[in-house]
Amino acid sequence: MTFIAVIPARAKSTRLPDKPLKDIGGKPMVVRTAEQAARSGASRVIVATDDHRVMTAAQIHNIETILTRSDHATGTDRLAEVASLLALAPDDIVVNVQGDEPLIDPSLIDLVAQLLQNAPDAAIATCASPITDADTLFNPNAVKVVCGRDRRALYFSRAPVPWARDALASGERTLAPGLPALHHIGLYAYRASFLAKFPVLPVGPLETFEALEQLRALENGYIIAVQVTDTPPAAGVDTPEDLERVRAAFLNRL
Question: What's the predicted TM-score (pTM) here?
Answer without folding.
Answer: 0.92
